[in-house]
Design brief:
By secondary structure, this protein is of the alpha/beta class. The protein contains four helices and three strands; from the N terminus they run H-E-H-E-H-H-E. The protein has helices at 2-6, 29-49, 72-84, 97-109; strands spanning 11-16, 54-61, 116-119. A three-stranded parallel β-sheet has the order 1-2-3, sandwiched between helices. Helix 2 links the parallel strand 1 (11-16) and strand 2. It is elongated. The protein starts with a helix and ends in an 11-residue tail after the last strand.
Length: 130
């Protein structure tokens, strides 16, 4: 798509990744490694394409209320991970999907170029290690 984007006055691309790419966690080797690889690929593209007026932004949400975390086994695993960070949670704080959409909209419409937005739900593990 780069040749098409280069013909435009300006292009903005937003990649939705994950806080796991910049904040690894215990028991999450494969997930964190994959998201970390994507994070560095996005950063590299940002550097390569910036001079061509192609703006690459990355939105890194933490836990989003998608229904995935409603599973009892997943809940137990996330609560166990939270304990390794010193958080004794009974419920997992989740942000609404609309929060991610608002971050994407901000990246696309704001006059500034957002390189990345790191976001977690209120009460969720903050950006430890990020």
């Amino acid at each position: 798509l780069a040749p098409v984007f280069e013909k435009q006055k300006e292009t903005r691309v937003v990649v939705i990744n994950s806080m796991s790419g910049i904040r690894p966690f215990p028991y999450g080797f494969s997930h964190s490694a994959a998201k970390g690889g994507l994070h560095n690929a996005v950063r590299s593209l940002c550097l390569e394409l910036n001079k061509k007026n192609i703006r690459i932004a990355e939105v890194n949400p933490g836990i989003v209320d998608t229904g995935f975390y409603d599973n009892k086994e997943i809940k137990k695993a996330i609560i166990k991970i939270c304990k390794t960070f010193g958080y004794d949670l009974q419920e997992i704080p989740k942000m609404p999907p609309s929060s991610v959409a608002k971050a994407v909209k901000l990246c696309l419409t704001e006059e500034a170029h957002f390189l990345s937005i790191n976001m977690v739900a209120l009460g969720q593990i903050p950006n430890l290690g990020a």
